[in-house]
Write a structure and sequence with these properties.
This protein has 158 residues and is an alpha+beta fold. It is 41% helix and 19% strand. The longest helix has 19 residues, at 4-22.
């Protein structure tokens, strides 16, 4: 169950995200994904590295792949090959939106360096001066948060 403190922090996160958008940060919401107008996912971090090396690693432009109109950069030719063989395995959950945001039925921007792999799925989280959504996630009931986030993502995709 999301407590009042979590809800208040979620509201603060929304206010901060609107401020970023108003400041001129151009976003594209292609297929409901959280992307900059360039269509580059994860700010250029390699989606495979989160799984294989357990940390965000910047990808290289020359190792780019477009999938569902979204661009991904890869840290190595092997990472690119793994993605091409099974893109769904490596794409971020919830279209790259904050997993905690999804659990509280909202879309928060993310810091691609703040992540957790849950049951083989890459979850990304918001982090700013007011909110550390990964901490909120870890303080909650992860199974229940995943269930709520999955339901909200499914509802937003219909």
């Amino acid at each position: 169950m999301i407590n009042i403190r979590h809800f208040a922090l979620a509201i603060a996160a929304v206010a901060v995200s609107f401020t970023a958008i108003e400041a001129g940060e151009s976003k594209a919401y292609l297929h409901s994904y959280n992307l900059p107008a360039s269509g580059l996912a994860l700010e250029g971090y390699c989606p495979v590295a989160y799984h294989t090396v357990g940390k965000p690693v910047k990808g290289k432009r020359e190792l780019a792949v477009q999938h569902d109109d979204v661009w991904y950069f890869f840290a190595s030719a092997e990472a690119k090959k793994l993605f091409e063989q099974n893109p769904e395995k490596y794409m971020p959950a919830y279209g790259g939106w904050c997993a905690f945001g999804m659990a509280v039925e909202d879309k928060f921007p993310v810091d691609p360096k703040l992540f957790k792999v849950v049951d083989g799925r890459l979850m990304l989280f918001l982090k700013n001066t007011n909110v550390d959504a990964l901490k909120l996630w870890n303080d909650g009931n992860q199974a229940e948060l995943v269930k709520k986030a999955d339901a909200h993502w499914k509802a937003t995709r219909q």
